[in-house]
Amino acid sequence: MVEVESTRRRKTRERLMDAAYLEFSERGVPAASVEAVCERAGFTRGAFYSNFSSKEELFFALMERENLRRVEALGLDIASALPNVSDDPSVLTEELVGEVLERAFGGQALDRRWCLVQEEFALLAMRNTEVAAEYNAFQADFFDRLAHVVRTTLADAGLALTGDPRDVVKLLSGVYEFALRESLLEPDAAASTNRMLSLVPQIVLALLVPLESEASTP
Amino acid sequence: MVEVESTRRRKTRERLMDAAYLEFSERGVPAASVEAVCERAGFTRGAFYSNFSSKEELFFALMERENLRRVEALGLDIASALPNVSDDPSVLTEELVGEVLERAFGGQALDRRWCLVQEEFALLAMRNTEVAAEYNAFQADFFDRLAHVVRTTLADAGLALTGDPRDVVKLLSGVYEFALRESLLEPDAAASTNRMLSLVPQIVLALLVPLESEASTP
DNA sequence: TGTATCCAATACATCAGTGTATCCATTTGA
DNA sequence: TCAAATGGATACACTGATGTATTGGATACA
């Protein structure tokens, strides 16, 4: 008895998840039928029920896969935007802050499909405690990583945030999410969205204080 | 031939919308069946199709009703929180800002059901251009009213915002929406949510500048 | 009181989706 | 190369929801 699942099986699951991603983002999870997902993946329902026990299980498997992908991409993304703050703290301008935020939230989140699927996930979580637990775990992980990057980077520049970096990061994430939704809702109003987002670096700088070397965050 | 619909008919529609509000918020629009809505309202589907042509039409009628209610409540709500700024500008503290924001966003938005139904509306809008138009109209109306109240109130106190009040208001709305979602997702973490929200008044004050009497907003 | 109108209930036809039991093909490994 | 096991297709039975056509009862009005 072999513990690892065969590559064939794994590929089938991947293809089903790929199709589900499209289907869920286009129609929404409740409206998407197992049938449609299978058809899109080039399988029949037989294959599906051989791999997943229900649409919900597929959805959770999908979210886990996608969330992992994005959390992993996060570190690299941000790091690549922050090469030189410690060399020269004066580069910590509104522009740089904007760029970092763009990396953190913009890059991955601006994917239309991903945004839609995540909304579905959130909505499900808001109605179901167990789903919420899973959702929160991902969110917490994501924010922790982001906050850590922010804090250490600022520390390099001799700066700190007035509040807990995680709270700040969460707040900014809220703003970006809102902006993203707006851009999906009225793509024409990109100007307005950008104006709103342009306020953010200003805000971030307002929340900065010189780093006191005594215990800043226990 | 009488143009006005009978009161009986109107009451039926109201009851169906009331039931739909509950059903949609609990199960979500796509998952809620016409049957369930009718049963909850104490009718059969016959009554439903005599009044609405589809579940979607019911949903839009419901959203129109609820949106109207809330936009109307907005003016009163905020006005009641701002009796005395012009008398004594020094009361414009972080506390007051917090209270105003609470009135504007907290009061109505913190209704769990309303939040869920609005998420559904937004999601629908993100997938459908026509729905988006309706959604945006409401949002714009809401923000315009809110921004107007904010601007005039600040002007009374001899202050203005650095950016367009509507952008600021939108930004804040994003933060509050995010906070609300968080509170729905992990009700235990109210502390964290409150900490995040407590940053907001600070931010608002950072965006304030003394009012220059020359054309501030054309 | 009678009757015309309106509105919701009932009954029916239909359909889309689900999940399972069975069958066939392909891969695996001895 | 041949059996055993695996994975996916097919067929079927079933459920739940939809929308409509018709009916019956209440209400308004004369």
Task: Tell me what the structure shows.
- Two copies of one chain form a homodimer.
- The first copy, chain A, is mostly helical and 218 residues long.
- The first copy, chain A, contains nine helices and two strands; from the N terminus they run αααααααβααβ.
- Chain A starts with 6 loop residues before the first helix and ends in an 8-residue tail after the last strand.
- The A-B interface holds A 26, 28, 30-31, 115-116, 119-120, 122-123, 125-127, 132, 135-136, 139, 162-164, 167-168, 170-171, 173-175, 177-179, 181-182, 184-186, 192, 195-196, 199-200, 202-203, 206-207 and B 26-28, 30-31, 115-116, 119-120, 122-123, 125-127, 132, 135-136, 139, 162-164, 167-168, 170-171, 173-175, 177-179, 181-182, 184-186, 192, 195-196, 199-200, 202-203, 206-207.
- The structure holds a DNA duplex (30 and 30 nucleotides).
Helices, strands, pairings?
The structure is a homodimer of 218-residue chains.
Chain A: H1 7-27, H2 34-41, H3 45-51, H4 55-81, H5 94-109, H6 112-127, H7 129-156, E1 159-161, H8 165-185, H9 190-206, E2 208-210
Antiparallel strand pairs in A: 1-2
Helix pairs in contact in A: 1-2, 1-4, 1-6, 4-5, 4-7, 5-8, 5-9, 6-7, 7-8, 8-9
The first copy, chain A, binds a DNA duplex (30 and 30 nucleotides) through helix 1 and helix 3.
